[in-house]
Amino acid sequence: MILTIEELQKFLKDNKDIAYCKILKNLGSSPREKGAWMLISKQGKIFGTIGGGQLEYNLIQSVMRQNWKVDFSLEIETTLGPDIAQCCGGKVIISILKMNYMFSKHLFEKFKKDISKLTQVLIFGAGNVGTSLALQMYNLPFKIKLIDNRENFISKLNLPIEKKFSLIPEQEVRAANACSCYIITTHDHGLDFLLCYEILKRNDASYIGMIGSKTKRGTLKNWLRKKGINDISNVNIPIGKSLVDTYDKRPEIISAHIISEMLSIIEKKAT
């Protein structure tokens, strides 16, 4: 589960004395990247992570030992292998800053802005694969929306993500954020094709995946050609098979492969 605005708000409210800890620099292999941060309270409670392990444990102990009667600010340099026997072997420099009201307010606003920038993932179809995808992605840093045109069906699903009944699902494509990811797993081939058409017209998708076979891919290609779209190279169909050609069709396994494929494509585009 990703960190939420509500959880940060509760942490700031429940803890009077808090230190903001951030990786200023990392050399070689380290648990997290430059800019990763976490909050540590005077009592050792935490929000976020800089990578866990001995590095994080030592940081928590260091924060708890500070003189909380003063506004402390310091930097700690740690060589992970020699200093704490952490297998990463690199070096990190971490800043520690006792937070005041103004800094807490600034952090909250920045966190809210960062959350708003998370990549949106639209999952069309709340069947077995769609719901499995939504549950597995709940733990990932994305904004997930599960969409279905069957009101009685989707309204009964008890899932910790955004759900939406839409009689015209293609409108959700038109209203989506730029560079969103789209996963099409509906019960209707005609709707699948229409959604794919709307997504390709936008020409800004970070990922497009559709449940189907090689035969369905050929049918889709011919259908889209009549609509004036000749290039479907960005459409992953059969979905989830670009990394591993598995024949295990259990929804949970299919979902895991789809997520791996999507993450791989997103990362390649980012480099």
In short:
The protein has helices at residues 5-14, 53-64, 80-84, 101-116, 128-137, 151-154, 170-174, 189-202, 214-226, 251-270, and strands spanning 18-27, 37-41, 46-48, 73-79, 91-98, 120-124, 143-148, 162-165, 181-184, 207-210, 235-236. It has 271 residues and is an alpha/beta fold. The strands form two sheets. A six-stranded parallel beta sheet has the order 8-7-6-9-10-11, with helices on both faces.
What is the strand and helix layout of this fold?
Elements: H1 5-14, E1 18-27, E2 37-41, E3 46-48, H2 53-64, E4 73-79, H3 80-84, E5 91-98, H4 101-116, E6 120-124, H5 128-137, E7 143-148, H6 151-154, E8 162-165, H7 170-174, E9 181-184, H8 189-202, E10 207-210, H9 214-226, E11 235-236, H10 251-270
Give your account of this protein's structure.
- Helix 1 runs antiparallel to helix 4 (101-116) and helix 5 (128-137) crosses helix 10 (251-270).
- This protein has helices spanning 5-14, 53-64, 80-84, 101-116, 128-137, 151-154, 170-174, 189-202, 214-226, 251-270, and strands at residues 18-27, 37-41, 46-48, 73-79, 91-98, 120-124, 143-148, 162-165, 181-184, 207-210, 235-236.
- The chain has ten helices and eleven strands.
- The protein is α/β, with parallel strands linked by helices.
- It has a six-stranded parallel β-sheet, with helices on both faces.
- The chain folds into two domains: 5-115, no CATH class; 118-270, Rossmann fold (3-Layer(aba) Sandwich).
- It is elongated.
